Amino acid sequence: MLTNKFLDTLMKEEIIGKEDRILVAFSGGIDSVALLCLLLEVRETLGLRLGAAHLNHGFRENADSDEAFCRSFCEEKKVPFFSRKIDVAAYAKAEKMSFEMAGRTLRYAFFEKVMDEQGFSKCATAHHLDDQVETVLLNLVRGTGLKGLTGISPVRGRYIRPLLFYKKSELLGYLEKNQISYRHDHTNDEVEYQRNRIRNEVLPYLEKYFNADVSQSISRMTGLLVEDLKFIEREVEKAKKSFLHEDGEQVRLSKEVKELPYAISSRLLMDAVQKVKGNLKDIEEVHIRDLLQLFLKETGKKLDIKEGVQGRNDYGDLLIEIKKEKTERENTMLHEVLSIPGTYHVKGQKITLRYIEREEMKKDKQLRFFNGDLISGEILVRHRDEGDRMRPFGMNGYRKLKNILIDRKVSREDRDELLVFQYEKDIIYIGHMMISEDYKVREKTERILEIGIFEEDTNDSK
Length: 462
Prior knowledge:
tRNA(Ile)-lysidine synthase, Uridine Diphospho-n-acetylenolpyruvylglucosamine Reductase, domain 3, EC 6.3.4.19, 3 domains, ligase, ATP binding
């Protein structure tokens, strides 16, 4: 008997608990009528409180008679009924979206409103096994990942799908056996919509020529993939704790992310983008792969994603952040990555970087010496920026560069032209002026980095 099977499913899948307050999305068609009737049969056993919500789309010719049927049906069953009529077509046109998407958006907004105002804890929709199969096949032909192949979830937040394990033919048989009336939606018979074409043409073809039980086969596949996805999502959560760090409107992904399996790294990147952007609309696999490549670029490299969001390499880490409009000064700010050793020409000055022995150190106002044991690879030379801090030579604490330069009576114009040397996240040197206490040469320093800044002759070639 379907009722007993239904009750077993609810308990096994933990879809409904005792004394739940459930609002049924009620169109009056086969699926929603079967759902409401089955819930009514188990209502006393589970101590449920039920209600039904119907949104009149104002589109079909018999939309008003459908609403009247639903109201009468609920009155007969003594189920509280909530309805609203809205012009979905006008909304779709105004919002520049498809009729189907507009209808879905308005339906769920209506359900949310009723749940909040009437105190319902869950909303039950009448998606069934045929819907599940159609969704998986649609996702497959459109191109999808693992999540798309898992189809519709029985539980998503406050929304539950108790019929997801039953074919429509089972629901129809239940209604006919119990002589329960329902409304017929003729748009389900049309092939205008992609889903209807899958339902009316593709599935019957697969059942006839490939597998008469294709729906159950796909259902078993989604069940297996759900378990695989749960495992991956657990691993992603572990990785988030180690490699993903939120800071206001910015998310930092540690450089180690690029070494993780793509199944993990891609999901970390999508999560980071969603945190900053607010959604994943228009984010495609190409964006995720481009962001992974950004890990391998030099520091400072950027990648525009979508809607003012960008990725930026920050010494091997990846920052996902809101793209800021540049000021006039920022458009001309220096940002050069220098490899050690090397000789470079920057802003009319020659900069030399080399490792030396302790005995090679000499007094020269154009040279500064640093603890080379702590510095390797690359140094960034740039102009100062708001919020820059360093630990000045001979001091215990850290100070803002702005305050250091004000104390030294350096004019604003000169401040903006000073060369700031940065290693990883630390400022190690304000050109010609001050080195960092953290990077000074110490008694046990074995390798010394020499940085030279020389004014170039006007005849020097670059």
